[in-house]
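Duplicate of #3305? Posting structure anyway:
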């Protein structure tokens, strides 16, 4: 099912979509389902995507990347998702962590991390969510303080729902440091190696069955060298949102891919399944909801492209608004597409054979993470419409 938005894309983007789609078809939903059932990781797909240059397409060429942007990386994730085999760690490792280090890291940090993130040989997790903070980043309690004797940082706190820590070489952790001038805490980002003393993880049992596991992290006076700090200590919010906007765009791409996959399965079924004289897809009660799902996905796709291009153009403010809108629109469109796909197949939609029922839970993730749709509506009402806050 060709996306109308491809009309607005360059020949290079169209070719990238086609190439990634071909890779996705080689693996598909059955591959990912098997990996999850075996408790393994999609290492083969990750390696092939890396070999073809897809994982680092957004990273600078001088560090082994493709020299593109989030626009290109989001296309890769969407097409893998449309083939039924999205790679969630793409959202975290090259999109969030790779972008933050490329934009704000020291030369040493770039040389140490970017080539590995680009070729897939290294991965990095991202730790921001805390059990008591929810969507309020100002309540983050993970704190970093200087050891006056050595200049090292000591990082203490807890994080929850952190993806892929078990396979990551390090975690980019959002902590807070005290501003010497005001005494207030400000956000800062630290690279914490997986084997750092005092850094422990505990798996969180999830109803969602995915290859990427979720973890609670405990940081108990984790000692970090001075150069573990990424970027300027006084530019925390700017650096933080440099990672969060790509996260929202990539989450939108993840949702678009899943929604397209579910819709394609439903359309295929509706064309062939006949209960009376004609295929069920001939009946408007089936056809119109599927057509509406396609419209919704197309509209969300256009906003995702807008958000990615604004971000890649360096317009962080406009990209922030568009990325939030894209994430909300794509997540809602995905949930509706999955629900309608399952409904179209009836009882078959709940069987393992057709592989759609598991998407009911998976499709809900993007409505909740990395930020809830309610907080996005708060953002739009306050930042875009200028309405007063209730909190």
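Output from current build:
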């Amino acid at each position: 099912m060709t996306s109308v938005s491809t009309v607005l894309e360059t020949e290079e983007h169209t070719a990238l979509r086609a190439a990634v789609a071909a890779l996705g078809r080689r693996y598909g939903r059955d591959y990912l389902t098997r990996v999850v059932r075996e408790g393994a990781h999609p290492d083969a797909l990750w390696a092939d995507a890396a070999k073809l240059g897809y994982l680092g397409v957004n990273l600078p060429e001088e560090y082994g990347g493709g020299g593109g942007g989030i626009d290109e990386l989001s296309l890769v994730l969407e097409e893998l998702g449309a083939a039924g085999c999205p790679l969630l760690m793409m959202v975290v490792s090259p999109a969030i962590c790779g972008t933050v280090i490329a934009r704000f890291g020291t030369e040493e940090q770039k040389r140490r991390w970017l080539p590995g993130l680009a070729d897939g040989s290294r991965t990095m997790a991202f730790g921001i969510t805390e059990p008591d903070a929810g969507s309020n980043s100002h309540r983050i309690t993970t704190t970093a303080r200087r050891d006056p004797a050595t200049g090292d940082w000591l990082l203490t706190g807890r994080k929850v729902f952190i993806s892929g820590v078990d396979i990551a070489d390090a975690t980019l952790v959002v902590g807070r440091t005290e501003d010497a001038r005001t005494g207030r805490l400000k956000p800062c980002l630290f690279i914490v190696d997986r084997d750092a003393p005092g850094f422990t993880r505990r798996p969180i049992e999830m109803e969602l069955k995915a290859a990427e596991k979720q973890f609670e992290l405990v940081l108990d006076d984790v000692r970090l060298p001075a150069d573990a700090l990424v970027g300027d200590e006084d530019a925390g919010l700017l650096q933080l949102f440099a990672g969060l906007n790509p996260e929202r765009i990539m989450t939108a791409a993840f949702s678009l891919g899943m929604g397209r996959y579910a819709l394609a399965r439903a359309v295929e079924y509706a064309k062939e399944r006949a209960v009376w004289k004609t295929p069920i897809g001939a009946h408007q009660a089936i056809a119109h909801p599927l057509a509406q799902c396609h419209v919704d996905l197309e509209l969300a796709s256009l906003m995702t492209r807008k958000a990615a291009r604004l971000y890649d153009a360096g317009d962080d403010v406009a990209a922030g608004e568009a990325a939030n809108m894209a994430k909300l629109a794509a997540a809602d469109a995905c949930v509706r597409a999955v629900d309608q796909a399952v409904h179209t197949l009836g009882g078959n939609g709940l069987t393992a054979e057709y592989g759609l029922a598991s998407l009911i839970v998976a499709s809900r993730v993007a409505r909740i993470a990395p930020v809830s749709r309610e907080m996005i509506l708060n953002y739009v009402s306050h930042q875009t419409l200028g309405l007063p806050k209730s909190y």
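Confirmed duplicate; merging threads. The CA atoms of residues 249 and 351 lie 31 Å apart. The chain has ten helices and eight strands.
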